[in-house]
Amino acid sequence: MIGTDGTMSDKTKPAAQASSDTAADLDFSQATAEAVAEAAAAPPPASEALAKLEAENAELRDRLLRAIAETDNTRRRGERELADARSYAIAKFAGDMLGVADNMGRALTSLPPEARDSGDPIIKALIEGAELTEREMLRALEKHGVKRIDPKGEKFDPNFHQAIFEVPDPSLANGTVAQVMQVGYVIGTRVLRPAMVGVARGGPKAEASIDKTA
């Protein structure tokens, strides 16, 4: 059957011709698919490859910097822990020795004035020996970072002092340590034992606190 445009419709084409047209269409579709696949498999342009390499380089650089920073932090942490271990290794031993230092101090302060002034060479030698022993003990402790806290007249600091009573005294600044019942000790920045103190009340406001570990 001839169409209005003068061509034969598919219905009137011979079977051989219709089959040939179908095969041609299939060949064209296959060629198109192969061309698309080849285009997809083709290497990207140089600009895209360069951008990809730059991105990978940036990522690797970031990883390297993070690894270096982590290594440096680990090293510093190890050095700090080692320094702390060296500084505070004798903390327990020093704490045990505080009682001995206290007893030496009590022995000296318990002597009556007349015994000191008696002129007896035995008593004088005993006092001098006890005082020398106390000084040597405190010097040895300080050599290893242990310092004595005797804060009389200073501003009360709860980090280093323990208030056990109040002293009504308007002549002293409010919050000033008026009495020291027992001296304290620190090792480095750690408190081995706070000073037992009496704090003044009723006077003017106290001035800024003084660093006890300086």
Describe this structure in words.
- The protein has a three-stranded antiparallel sheet with strand order 1-4-5. It has a three-stranded mixed sheet with strand order 2-6-3, with no helix packed on it.
- 11% of the residues are buried.
- Residues 1-7 have low confidence and may be disordered.
- It has helices at 15-41, 46-88, 91-109, 113-116, 121-143, and strands at 146-149, 161-168, 177-182, 184-187, 190-193, 195-201.
- It has 214 residues and is an alpha+beta fold.
- The N and C termini lie far apart (115 Å).
- The chain is elongated.
- Helix 3 runs antiparallel to helix 5 (121-143).
- It contains five helices and six strands, in the order αααααββββββ.
- The chain folds into three domains: 47-89; 90-144; 146-205, Head domain of nucleotide exchange factor GrpE (Nucleotide Exchange Factor Grpe, Chain A, domain 2), CATH 2.30.22.
What gyration radius follows from the Cα positions, in whole Å? 46 Å
Summed over residues and divided by their number, the pLDDT gives a mean of: 77
Oligomer kind? single chain
Structural class given helices, strands, pairing?
alpha+beta
Question: What do we call the CATH topology of the largest domain?
Answer: Nucleotide Exchange Factor Grpe, Chain A, domain 2
Instruction: Assign the CATH architecture of the largest domain.
Output: Roll
* CATH class category of the largest domain: Mainly Beta
Side by side, the strands of the main sheet go 1-4-5
Number of contiguous helices? 5
CATH superfamily of the largest domain: Head domain of nucleotide exchange factor GrpE
Q: What general form does the structure show?
A: elongated
Helix coverage percent? 40-55%
Largest sheet: 3 strands, antiparallel
Helix and strand pattern: HHHHHEEEEEE
Q: What's the domain count? A: 3
Q: How many beta-strand runs? A: 6
> What's the N-to-C terminus distance?
115 Å
Low-pLDDT ranges: 1-7
